[in-house]
Design a protein that fits this description.
It contains nine helices and four strands. It is of the alpha+beta class. Bound molecules: cytidine-5'-diphosphate (CDP) and magnesium ion (MG). Cytidine-5'-diphosphate binds next to helix 4, helix 5 and helix 8.
């Protein structure tokens, strides 16, 4: 593989229960498609607590960073319904997807990002109310997290290699 191939990355995106329940998955997905990211896997699932513990703590170190109470609020939010999990591929896709999604707190997310354009919530309010922060989508934080998350959410045969007619920058 050439050096440039190392810059082709895959990122895990999860449409959280609020985006599914609000019926805005299509609008959000368009943000990723319109920059030319390639969908290489997609499915609707309703993961259990063990799966979310592996995702948020074993891989994302959320309890370590934010505490068990915040994890529990988030778990209650994430288990309110099914989610749509997806793997997106493209040039430096991991930081690109994070840029499109915006920061964790909708209050701090700039307009033009998914979280800024489609949600409003602050850490202050969610913590005071004892709820998770409904911020529409999960996106892998870095390349190493992305690799572990994709292995957790998808079997190898659920990811597809196919030619993309735009395909100058994909595998
Ligand atoms: O999702 P992101 O990588 O931006 O943030 P994180 O620090 O990895 O936290 C994971 C998720 O936990 C967030 O996306 C929020 O939905 C949720 N969270 C929460 O419910 N309450 C907080 N105070 C912080 C995060
Ligand atoms: Mg994270």
């Amino acid at each position: 593989m050439g050096k440039e191939q190392d810059l082709i990355q895959r990122s895990l995106v999860v449409f959280k229960p609020d985006s599914v329940q609000r019926g805005i998955v299509g609008k959000i997905l368009q943000r990723f498609e319109q920059v030319g990211l390639k969908i290489v896997g997609m499915k609707m699932v309703m993961p259990d607590e063990d799966h979310y513990r592996a995702h948020y703590e074993d891989i994302g170190e959320m309890i370590t960073r934010r505490g068990e109470k915040t994890f529990q609020y988030n778990l209650a939010y994430m288990t309110t319904g099914p989610v749509i999990a997806m793997v997106l591929e493209g040039v430096e896709a991991v930081p690109l997807v994070r840029k499109i999604v915006g920061p964790t707190e909708p209050k701090s997310a700039e307009m033009g990002t998914i979280r800024g354009d489609f949600s409003h919530m602050s850490f202050g309010y969610s913590d005071a109310k004892g709820i998770g922060v409904p911020n529409l989508v999960h996106a892998s934080g870095n390349v190493s997290e992305a690799k572990k998350e994709i292995a957790l959410w998808f079997k190898p045969d659920e990811l597809y290699d196919y030619s993309d007619v735009r395909a100058k920058f994909t595998r």
